[in-house]
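Example (one chain per record):
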Amino acid sequence: MQGTSYPTHVELLDAQAHCRHLVSDGSVYAFLADHRRALFPDELVADLFPSGRGRPSVVADVVATVMVLQGLEGLSDRDACQQLACNIAWEVACGLALTDPGVHPSVLTLWRARLRASDRPERIFAVVRRVVHATGVLKGKTRRALDSTLLDDAVATQDTVTQLVAAIRRVRRLVPAAATLQLGAHDYNQPGKPACAWDDDQARERLVSGLVTDALAVLGEVKDVELDAAGAEAVGLLGVVAGQDVEPGERPGCFRIARKVAPDRVISVVDADSRHMHKSRASYRDGDKAHLAAEPETGLVTAARLTPANAGDGPTGLQLLSDELMRWRCWPTRPTAAARPARGCAQPGTARRSSRCRCGRRCPGGSPKTTSGSTWTSRR
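Predicted structure:
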């Protein structure tokens, strides 16, 4: 069940009551201490804990405050919880007692998992973004720095045989029509790889052919079946796995492992979004990629996105900036000829003269400024 915040309840050794004067008034810690409950009320996360039974969770304003400070200082879950237990500024910001041990790192993991599975996974980030715009701390600061980093996945990369067996087992578990289908390449009630003489090319080809044939039989059996969301996802993943690493063999109806790497290859059915990425010719990683857009002077993050590891930085960076690009002012151009109409809004890197815009107002003088590399400047 969800924990409830009680504004009138104050601990004897409350950090804010005893140490608020030690925290600078203009700091983020002081701002969170004064406005924490208004920013992150219990109603903000009510859908994450629908059950009214069980042990109450940590209150929303405390967890949200820890997540905000963790993001600002770039700390891991364990380091953030250590700061919460030992740092007076963190305790003041979260409204805890000086003797409060804080929370366990698994609490942050649980909350992130529930937020990620909810209809509004970025609600805490959205609140922070509204505060940034309402307070005007980024007023006139139009530069945005884009960066990305790779997040290693906890799952191991699976080979073709393992993925085929796991994907077929998952469809048979979620779709009753597939569970009754008789398959001959493997006993799919048993997890793991089938027995095979892996050093024998013919035996390996027979196994792969049998598994692909079973996969195609399952896909054909469920093609007209009405599926729920989980079943449809499992069937789609089976179709991807059955086609990404195999190719027709020399004989009709036979398949073999293709001697190539499929574009955007799924590396594990445990985490279908994880991808393979080369940082260099000699270094490669498996996992996801985190993209950030931030104001370089204050360090405030204005947008964030998680993508597969092989996603390009350029297109994702444009998506991060899309909300701010929509707030650009109109930069019309005076026509150079009678037949050439004035254009509406400028694109990055174009110099336009100021003139009266279609709405009847005069745009600010000058032209939008841009910087090279991954930093763009826009006027709002």
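Caption: Residues 98 and 308 are 41 Å apart (CA to CA).
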